Amino acid sequence: MSEIDFTRYDASKPIREITYEALKDAIISGAILPGERIVESNFAKRFNISRTPIREALRKLEQDGLIEYTPRRGVVVRSLRTEDINEIYIIREALEALALTHAIKNVTPEGIASLRETLREIAEHVDDGDIDAASKRSRDIHIQIYRMCGMERLVSIYNSLDEYMDRFSYMSLTDEARRHDAAREHGAIIDALAACDLETLLAVSKAHLEGARVNCILAYERRRKQAEEALLTSKN
Length: 236
Description:
- The chain is mostly helical.
- Helix content is 73%, strand content 3%.
- Strands 1-2 form a two-stranded antiparallel ribbon.
- It starts with 14 loop residues before the first helix and ends with a helix.
């Protein structure tokens, strides 16, 4: 397992929240690999904290669907399947088309300016190689568009996929070429939205999601091989 830097989190928060955020980010980024065990006592000793915040964090991570309890092995990071990735992107494509169809009716210069500012920030993060920040701000573009559509329940449905979206967005952007492609695709989405060109908007959005899906699966396969190799090494 890679190192987890607890110093990057807000020290004013309760230790249980910091622990939860740190473990969640580690799972999403692949610092803790799929199939890897999370032993309370080991983590408590490693981070010089009691087992209680570890236990509380694990409960939340289980609710998020990021870990699972298995016979004989205990707590392990839940492994995704290609089918999971495909299913989520099918759902997301349908949601995105609905959101864009309604968002285009509510376009304002201020809304477009906000989207372009987010895109500028993403470009900075990409140039800096900060995948975590680029991933979070990339998701913010979609959330802004969902809010623009004026359908709060649709926003809630999108947010219900939050843990998957975090994980998938990060995985997709681990490829440098994909990071630049995604930035261009977001720009094309914003341009079509500003022009109120629904046909182009739906087409570029579909292409964007397809690119993300393909790269996410490739990243998942790389991570799965890493996990298998790590498991073999631990047995030898």
